[in-house]
Structure formats: structure tokens, C-alpha cells
Write a structure and sequence with these properties.
five-stranded antiparallel sheet; 5 strands; single chain; alpha+beta; 7 helices; about 230 residues
């Protein structure tokens, strides 16, 4: 009977953690994987993708030995001492692979939990004050915006309907804060729509209220110090 082949290099396996990762980051795993390869993720998201890759390799090992065990019990091989020995060895290998998979999953969770905590904090503080740069970016995105990838350079940039460009790093920060959402159902080369979330609209509205409340009240009969801006 030929020796057991080793598991091949892992392709990405679907994990039960995929929905949690997408909910916390605003990206599916394939998109995060591609962004990691381009070096455009921050440290926390890079760590998450690296741990997920370890999980994918471990999950591939579990699948390999489970499939091998099924083949050994399918009736393809004669029932003899060699088969029993091989089944025992495969069961041990499957057990080891499952233990490695479980350990890898815990490492993914360790990397994911800070990102989830930041997203929850952003949602709870949806009406918290935002910076002037945040306000400008959110206002630009509110009018319509898309994320594009340059076909030659692979660079990502956000272009708004008004012609304003929002840096990709700023988009990532706003996403992590839960203020904007990215529609990844469209190819990034053709443009992925970017929109404000409920938290983003609430933060923008709260910031406008605070800004207006902080303006000095004009004395009755006084001329305005500057002409009112047309809308």
C-alpha cells in the first residue's frame, strides 16, 4: 500500500468566522486577502488576515485527512492488517489536524476581537464629534462616491460625485469607525459604491448641530461679518 501523501498547500477554505470578519471589517475575506497582498491594510487588519491564512491551511489539513479516511473506508482497499494500520494512522493525523485548526481559530478570534470592539464602540458613539477632515470626507461621500482600483498600478482611491478625492487610508479609518459602508458586490476596477451608514449620518448631523450651536449670535440690527453662503 503506498504511503500517505502529505496535504497540499492550502487554498482559502470557508470558515464559520467569515460572516463575523465581514461584519467587523466591511470586507469579505477575499477582498481583505487581496488588500493584504498589496500592503494597504493597517497593522490590526494585517494581523487578522495573516492569522486567517494560518486557519485556512489548518482547515485544509482537516479536509484532507477526513477525505482520506472516507476513501479508506469506502471499500476501495482490501480489508487487512495494512488497512487497519493506515486507518489508525489517519485518525491520529485527523485528530492532530483538528487540534491545529482549533488553535488557529483561537488566534483568529484574538486578532478579530479588537476590531469588533472598535466597531461596536463606533456604533455606540455614532453621534460623537468628528474631526473637520472626517466631516469633509463624509460630506463628499454623502453626495455619491466610488472606490476604484487603477488597472496598471493597483492603487486604490475614492472619487466622489463632486470630484473630491478621499484617500484610501481615510476610507479605511471611516469604515473601521462604522461611519461608511463599501458595496463589494461590484468589481473594484469598475468602482465599488461607498455610502454613509446610519452611524455616519448621525455623526455628521451631530457635528453640524454642534458647529451651528457654537457660532456667535448676531446682535439685532447688526450686519453679518461675512456674506451667507448659498446652498
Amino acid at each position: 500500500m503506498p504511503p500517505d501523501p502529505a496535504p497540499t498547500a492550502a487554498r482559502r477554505a470557508v470558515s464559520p468566522l467569515d460572516p463575523r470578519i465581514e461584519a467587523a471589517t466591511g470586507h469579505d475575506v477575499d477582498t481583505l486577502w487581496a488588500h493584504r497582498d498589496r500592503g494597504i491594510l493597517d497593522q490590526e487588519h494585517t494581523e487578522l488576515v495573516d492569522r486567517y491564512r494560518e486557519l485556512a491551511r489548518a482547515e485544509a489539513g482537516v479536509t484532507f485527512y477526513r477525505t482520506l479516511l472516507h476513501r479508506l473506508s469506502s471499500g476501495e482497499f482490501p480489508v487487512d492488517a495494512a488497512l487497519f494500520e493506515r486507518i489508525d494512522r489517519t485518525v491520529d493525523q485527523l485528530e492532530e489536524a483538528a487540534a491545529s485548526r482549533d488553535a488557529a481559530m483561537r488566534r483568529v478570534l484574538d486578532a478579530l476581537e479588537p476590531i469588533e470592539a472598535a466597531a461596536r464602540s463606533a456604533q455606540r458613539g455614532g453621534e460623537a464629534q468628528i474631526t473637520a477632515a472626517d466631516q469633509a470626507a463624509l460630506l463628499a461621500i454623502a453626495g455619491g462616491a466610488k472606490l476604484y482600483e487603477h488597472l496598471l498600478t493597483g492603487r486604490l482611491s475614492v472619487t466622489t460625485a463632486s470630484g473630491t478625492r478621499v484617500p484610501y487610508a481615510e476610507l479605511q479609518r471611516l469604515q473601521s469607525a462604522g461611519l461608511v459602508a463599501l458595496d463589494t458586490s461590484h468589481p473594484v476596477q469598475a468602482g465599488q459604491p461607498v455610502s454613509l451608514t446610519d452611524a455616519g449620518r448621525a455623526a455628521l448631523t451631530a457635528n453640524r448641530r454642534t458647529t451651528q450651536a457654537s457660532l456667535p449670535t448676531a446682535r439685532p440690527g447688526a450686519w453679518p461679518s461675512a456674506p451667507a453662503q448659498r446652498r
